[in-house]
Amino acid sequence: MTVSRFVQYSALLALAWSVPIDRNTRPPSSKENKPAEEQPENQDTGLYYDRYLREVIDVLETDPHFREKLQAANADDIKSGKLSKELDFVGHHVRSKLDELKRQEVSRLRMLIKAKMDATAHQNVQMDHAALLKQFQHLDQQNQQTFEAKDLELLIETATRDLESYDSARHEEFKRYEMLKEHERREYLRSLDQEKRESEEKREEERRQRHKEHPKINVPGSRDQLKKVWEETDGLDPQEFNPKTFFKLHDSNGDGVLDEQELEALFTKELEKVYDPKNEEDDMTEMEEERLRMREHVMRNVDANRDRLVTLEEFLKSTERKDFANTDEWKTVDEKPVYTEEELRQFEAELMAQEAELGKRAEELKREHEELKERERELELQKREYQQAVIQMAQRQKAPQAAEGQPPSGPNGELQFHGENKGAAENSLPVEDRKPVQAAPVADGNPAPAEPPQNQPEQTP
Length: 461
Known about the structure:
By secondary structure, this protein is mainly α. Helix content is 55%, strand content 1%.
């Protein structure tokens, strides 16, 4: 059982998931026999705890007792917390897996909060601690070790609330998209001179006219719209349209209900009349907004118990009402503005404030960049001075070592010797370089006779 089967059946679905819970009597293993291409894809709910939600439901589905209770429960039982009490009867191995999932989720949220705090620590931004704590609303914060009935109750309650507000958030996002597009269009026109502006406005008008030139759009859920699907998609004779057969044909997973994704698939032919990705005048974002509006329209008129699922009984009753024969044309989103001029002016004021803030931040970053470059230059200069000092120190250390291998020199570069080394050094000199030896004084004051110099030529009178 996928998360979509659990959430759709329990009226938690505000986002289109594809596989509601199987109400047939076939065994659970029969799902495994379906071809791979028929296996539904689990769509991301958009919730920040989507993975945790899916894993909890996958584990609960492995318990036969809980699965049986889930199939027999209705939306009110699940929303009221009655189903949560069944958690006390699941197997020990299931509870152990749920405990581990909860500990992992708590750890993930702690890391997420720490990362947010670290990211804003140097930006001088006031941390919204209340908003951070809200991220723990889908589990029991007082007990962060074991998964209890309260955790399941909180998970259902939080998912219900968050998913029900999902469509509203999508509409608001689309409104901002449209206002931004109009703001950029007007800014572009202001940047042109008179002649170019008139030319561009003419081109825009031509594109709008081409976009409006499309076949009639039938009201979603009306007889004409469903018969069009019956004829073009199912390939059947429109004169033989049968609501019950139609329902079974488009209940693609055979669960007895039409979920939101199965409903949206019915509007494809109508949307293709208006939107073509090859045409520059057709906006695919507007097409998705149109699809959402069509689905909401059908749900308001067909989904009697507001569980976001259409049963066969609800569908058949809708075909018996007078408005089922409605032949009016559906007004597309471009024919009905989603914002007012006042909202556009307020949006543009917000944009200007954001641009000013971004400009201020850009100046701060530029200044910080210059300071970093200046600091880098200072460090490079210090590095060079340090390297020079190291070289000079190495040279001073080498100088005494070199002096140990040679005699010292005098002021004029001549060699000087002292003590015992002096005689040996002089004897090692060439004869012509040797100095004459003078007589040393004696004790009685008479000098000793000097020895005649050797190898000296005799002087003539």
